[in-house]
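As the next step, I selected for study a record pairing a protein sequence with its backbone structure tokens, which the following lines show:
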Amino acid sequence: MNYILFDPPEIERFHPFTLTRPLGELRVFGGTLKQLWEKHLGCKISYLTRDYLSDLYPIVLKKNNILLNPLGIFNVSNYHGIDLVYNGQSMDSIQLLIQKHTISLLPTNLSQFFSSDLISFNHKSFSTNVDGGKNSLFNDDKGPIYVEEDVEIMEGVMIRGPVYICKGSVIKMGAKIYGPTVIGPYCKIGGEVSNSIFLGYCNKAHDGFLGHSIIGEWCNIGAGTSNSNLKNDYGTVKMWDYFEKKFKDSGKQFLGLYMGDHSKCAINTSFNTGTTVGVNCNIFGSGFSRNMIASFSWGGAQGIKTYNFEKAISVADKVMKRRDVKLQKEYIKMLRTVYDMELELK
């Protein structure tokens, strides 16, 4: 049987992270949703995603297929995919089939996805596997601390599980990491981190607090930057809903920062509770910037303008080369589409 992960209806509710990737590329404890599905099924899986992402994430269609919601892995024993016998149907007709058969018993937005149970839902299948630097402290009473190959943990690090650290990452001296936290591949993490997900290739190498946050790939968090993850009145947090184009009550008391791919902030940047930063933003200046910053924005509390696309791509190219990753023309084309889409939000 051929398995395909599809982007569910209203995929915008998982933006800004699904602006630049299929939903199955989001990361939880133990890997991406796609990796967990492949481990469960014992085979490779392709994607049915939006047209502008299909060059980077191509679909493999065969005669007999099963379409899977990536989030079904959270309830895999009770989840049933959608049977598709492929006879040359259009992608539009396949999307209609998905809409007809998709049920909403799974997380339907980022705030539901981003709960402690979902970040660490798979941690019980892991045991602690960590080898740290001198004078480091590790507490796995509440969950395992799992470290993949080629991870460097420097001196004086303190980690309280459940925490999963992917290959190639560096945990800087004196870092304090509280679980549940997932650190994707090739990140540099320092300061204080709590209840957060880094998708990969991120730099948060210096002091500052990051809590109840999701950080996309190729982001850089300036020294001393911190975010609030709890309102002063202890109420529930409103977050930007890309689908309805308005702020909505998440029902969560703790929510911090959602930062899309390639976004960066200067030293001592302050982010308020429930802030969303889109793709390829450059945030700087004193004071709290607005709680929703559209993709390809340049500025901060004193004002924001559109980030020149060619300049943004030049920076992305330099950043990716530092990690020996080539900026492909298909990737640039995808970012151009995101740029054009997000202009509508400004």
About this structure: Residues 15 and 126 are 30 Å apart (CA to CA).
